[in-house]
Amino acid sequence: MLFSGKGRHRRPGRATRIATVTGVAGAAVAIPLVSATGAQAASVDTWEKVAQCESSGNWHANTGNGYYGGLQFNNSSWAAAGGTKYAPRADQATKDQQIAVAEKLLKMQGPGAWACAGAGGLTSGGPAADVNPDGGSDGNKTEPQQQSAPKKAAPQQQPAQPKPAQPQQQAPRTGHGNYTVEPGDTLGRIAEAHDTTWQQIYADNKSTIGDDADLILPGQKLQVG
């Protein structure tokens, strides 16, 4: 995705969204953007519609394109919104957990973080999703496999292999620039306001932004100009 109305959870180069449907870097003026302030929540039904558009409703989608789950998170956005406390990637989490993390990302970036916000009717304000991420439902349940009859003699158990430690998520860097990121900002929007390009801003602030140029967070200080 290219930059437009919000700090998105998609990479530059995938031509998908502005505030509601489509857009490109620096084109945020084409459609008025919904502010990321105020109440930010959506019903389960709304998130299901967004997922239907994003991934055909497959809450365990993993097609190898770098985006996972029903709502197509990339790993940096999943981690920034707290998703790694449930699973390393979105497609490994339950539907309820993905929706709970999406609610947090909605508060951080607004509905423009999803290309399918318009198709799903996702807006900046709405009733909070009724989900239970600690024991919620699975969006793509499969039929349980038939259990085989117990054997007369239990096989010798192999010693359990230790699980690899999950890498610790680092807190976002604040930076020391002359511009403070506001809710709803993107590099494209900032660049347009300061007569420069988002590529230049990203190059000057990569140590603060990190590897995902789409993910800038309110409060970060960027060097602009």
From TrEMBL:
UniProt cross-references to Pfam families, sorted A to Z: LysM, Transglycosylas
UniProt xrefs under Gene3D superfamilies: 1.10.530.10, LysM domain
Endoplasmic reticulum is among the record's keywords: no
Biased composition (Low complexity): 144-160
Keyword terms, alphabetized: Hydrolase, Signal
Leader sequence residues: 1-41
Region (Disordered): 125-188
InterPro entries, sorted: Bact_Kbp (IPR052196), LysM (IPR018392), LysM_dom_sf (IPR036779), Lysozyme-like_dom_sf (IPR023346), RPF (IPR010618)
Domain LysM, chain residue ranges per copy: 177-224
PANTHER family associated with the record: PHAGE-LIKE ELEMENT PBSX PROTEIN XKDP, POTASSIUM BINDING PROTEIN KBP
Family statement: Belongs to the transglycosylase family. Rpf subfamily.
Protein name: LysM peptidoglycan-binding domain-containing protein
Organism of this sequence: Streptomyces smyrnaeus
Taxonomic placement: Bacteria, Bacillati, Actinomycetota, Actinomycetes, Kitasatosporales
